[in-house]
Amino acid sequence: MKSGLEGKRVLVSGGSRGIGRAIAGAFAAEGCRLALNARDADALQKTASALGPDVIALPGDVTDPAVASGVVEAAAGRLGGLDVLVTNVGSGRSVPPGQETPEEWQRVFAINLFSATTLVGAATPHLAKQGGSIVCISSICGNEAIPGAPVTYSAAKAALNAFVSGISRPLGASGIRINAIAPGNILFEGSVWERKLAEDRNAVESMLTREVALQSLGTPEDVARFAVILAAPDTGFASGAVFTVDGGQTRGT
């Protein structure tokens, strides 16, 4: 079944690897026109080239508001507008709970919250021209306390969830929908779960058996397919919500 996204103009941040790359591939498979952003210019160009000759690579660190604005303007200019924005920049790497510093709070919030809020602000005038859709990639760490998760990361993702909920009303007045996806444990090359499996596969499998209803790690494609669904016209009445994709790990309502 077609999603109705063919020909739509899509900007994906954090699009060079892992979840972001899978999301870009899923939109490309729907016939969308794509612009991708990431900090690593070489990795980004490699991903863009692999997805198709017309995929646009826009390197830059979107935690910087000026860079984020420039990326959005370049994407809209080269694509002829924007229909969909996916904010996927993020990192769960931080200090252990109780060791936070002011500098670490600033760094983690810049990556996991401000990278999204600045892109949304810059993209809003373009998305409002025809009524667009925004999908923010959050984390189950923003939904409830996950043992061992950095407090800085969890707080930043909780703030991102609150942003999605709160901004949905003013965006809705311009015909723009915004939703978030909160993935659970996702395995891909270079991910924390690849490292943990290499270090102690038995411990990972024990955790999955104990904590995750489906007793498995997820894939980037699990998240990517959901991103396409949320951007598609068939979910046109969904906005301001956070959708969990975690195999049944979290227990919150």
Explained architecture:
About 45% of the residues lie in helices and about 15% in strands. The chain is α/β, with parallel strands linked by helices. It starts with 8 loop residues before the first strand and ends in an 8-residue tail after the last strand. It is built from eight helices and seven strands. Helix 3 (about 65-80) packs parallel to helix 4, helix 4 (about 100-125) packs parallel to helix 5 (about 150-170) and helix 6 packs across helix 7 (about 200-210). The model has no long low-confidence stretch (mean pLDDT about 95). It has helices at about 20-30, 40-50, 65-80, 100-125, 150-170, 190-200, 200-210, 220-230; strands spanning about 10-15, 35, 55, 85, 135, 175-185, 240-245. A seven-stranded parallel β-sheet has the order 3-2-1-4-5-6-7, sandwiched between helices. It has two domains: about 10-185 and about 220-245, Rossmann fold, CATH 3.40.50.720; about 190-215, no CATH class. Strand 5 (about 135), helix 5 and strand 6 (about 175-185) form a beta-alpha-beta unit.
CA-based shape = globular
CATH class of the largest domain: Alpha Beta
User: Main beta sheet: strand number and arrangement?
Assistant: 7 strands, parallel
* Chain-averaged pLDDT: 96
Q: Architecture of the largest domain, according to CATH? A: 3-Layer(aba) Sandwich
CATH topology of the largest domain: Rossmann fold
The fraction of residues assigned to DSSP E strands is 5-15%
Helix content: 40-55%
Using the CA coordinates, give the radius of gyration. Answer: 17 Å
Topology pattern, helix = H, strand = E: EHEHEHEHEHEHHHE
| Stretches with pLDDT under 50, minimum 5 residues | none
Structural class, please?
Answer: alpha/beta
CATH homologous superfamily identity of the largest domain:
NAD(P)-binding Rossmann-like Domain
Continuous helix count: 8
Give the tally of structural domains. 2
